[in-house]
Amino acid sequence: MVDRARLTPQEHAAAAASWAHDTPVPQPPQADRLVHLLESIRSLGAVRRQVRAFLRAGLPDDAGEAAEDAVEHAVLVIDELTSNALRHGRPPSRLQVCDEPDRWIVVVSDAAPERMPTPAVERPAGAGGYGLHLVADLTGAHGVHYETDQKLVWACLEKPGR
After folding, report:
1. DSSP labels for 13-78?
2. pLDDT per residue over 125-137, tens digit each?
3. Exposure winner among 44, 93, 99, 122, fewest CB in 10 A?
4. Mind listing the UniProt keywords for this protein, alphabetically (predicted)?
5. CATH number at residue 29
6. Which residues form the domain of 49?
7. Is pLDDT of 4 > 60?
């Protein structure tokens, strides 16, 4: 993971730019899906438990420590995106996780298309706001897509052993 406190202004700008363009949401053909309506920050503990169970169910029983690390990275990404939707977006907010053979696709939507994801820049360490940088670090691809009545923030995470 990258130490955000030591990034140059140019590196911060590049990280922010990765969230600045409208990019289409990857569309998996036929994948198992978990869909969850997001109601409050307090409900995210239950969402994390359901997500962990869903992600683990799609992995072989003998997947090992790398699989557990991949699941925890995915849960961290999902937690960042869902909490952002609840804090900075507008209801209704929804989480969708798709389980493809080689990756997980996470899509979090909210009804505030006018509020684009904005990564923190030059904020003191410990002051928060670096979740989108973390998402960028942990994912193979990420982006945001705007529609008339909603914003869809998405990320793709590689499954272990691929």
Report:
1. HHHHHTTTSB-PPP--SS-EEEEEEE--GGGHHHHHHHHHHHHHHTS-TT--HHHHHHHHHHHHHH
2. 666 677 898 899 8
3. 122
4. Kinase, Serine/threonine-protein kinase, Transferase
5. 3.30.565.10
6. 4-158
7. no
